[in-house]
Specification:
It is a single chain. With 238 residues, this protein is α+β, with helices and mostly antiparallel strands. It has two domains: 2-91, Rossmann fold (3-Layer(aba) Sandwich), CATH 3.40.50; 98-224, Probable inorganic polyphosphate/atp-NAD kinase, domain 2 (Tumour Suppressor Smad4, Sandwich). Helices cover 15% and strands 42% of the residues. The chain has helices spanning 12-27, 46-54, 84-90, 153-156, and strands at 2-7, 31-32, 39-43, 62-66, 75-76, 93-103, 106-110, 113-118, 124-130, 133-139, 141-145, 168-174, 184-187, 192-196, 200-204, 207-212, 217-229. The strands form three sheets. Strands 7-6-17-14-9-10 form a six-stranded antiparallel sheet, with helices on one face. A six-stranded antiparallel sheet has the order 13-12-11-8-15-16, with no helix packed on it. It has a five-stranded parallel sheet with strand order 2-1-3-4-5, sandwiched between helices. Strand 15 (200-204) and strand 16 (207-212) form a beta hairpin.
Length: 238
């Protein structure tokens, strides 16, 4: 198997694990390459997977090695050796639905969530259109998440956790004034259109992308499926 290994360069343990993983995989007959991989191993935690996804570096099914608080990563930095080769060679795969998000003609693939957030310590006015219904509210922002991302920021903001393989979209307001807007779980074919009434920040998978100007729109809908080795999001019901 041709395997790509991406390690977080800011974490010494991730660089060390990457070195050991390369040696172990080569010993087992696998090739370590940088392009055209059959699978990608991300070492460093959930953020490493999300950043690699944002940069378009993930190829084939994804396997993550993270710390004890990692949610997407299937393996931990203290126990990865006994399972790595077995998962790559015999592990089952699971499809995870992503989001496709567009702003002013630019399109992004989202693994966890899209966040539109007020800036300058002020609430923002937002219009959220779902199907034929439009709701306007003031608040700190709104989160649109995948089922996998429902256990992250969305859950902290009051959304319900979903199984990672569910094909649904979660829409969650962040501190809406007078609770004028409640979180909702939508079927996969729904489109979420957010129009900002003041300057806001656009954040994708925890990565700040740019400022949004008053009147700009963020549109989120179902994206392409992404393959993970089984076990991603395994802590959701623990």
């Amino acid at each position: 198997m041709r395997v790509k290994i991406l390690a977080n360069p800011r974490k010494d343990w991730a660089k060390q694990v990457a070195k050991e993983a390369k040696a172990l995989l080569r010993k087992s007959g696998h090739r370590i390459i940088t392009k055209g991989a059959d699978a990608t191993i991300c070492i460093g935690g959930d953020g490493t997977i999300l950043y690699a996804g944002h940069k378009g570096r993930l190829e084939g099914p994804v396997l993550g090695i993270g710390g004890k608080t990692s949610y997407i990563c299937q393996l931990r930095k203290n126990n990865w050796k006994r399972s790595l080769v077995r998962l790559l060679e015999k592990g089952k795969k699971q499809k995870i639905m992503t989001l496709s998000c567009s702003i002013a003609g630019r399109r992004f693939t989202v693994i966890n969530d899209v966040v539109v957030h007020a800036t300058n310590y002020r609430v923002a006015t937002m219009q959220v259109a779902i199907g034929k219904r439009t709701r306007e509210f003031e608040g700190d922002g709104v989160i649109v998440s995948t089922a996998l991302g429902s256990a992250a920021y969305a859950y902290s903001a009051g959304a319900r956790k979903m199984r990672p393989t569910e094909r649904k979209i979660s829409v969650v307001p962040i501190c809406p004034y007078r609770r004028a807007f409640s979180s909702a779980v939508l079927p996969q074919n729904q489109k979420v259109d957010i129009k900002v009434g003041s300057d806001c920040a656009f954040i994708m998978d925890g990565i700040f992308i740019r400022r949004l100007r008053k009147g700009e729109r963020v549109v989120a809908r179902k994206g392409a499926d992404m393959m993970f080795f089984e076990g991603a999001g395994k802590w959701v019901f623990k």
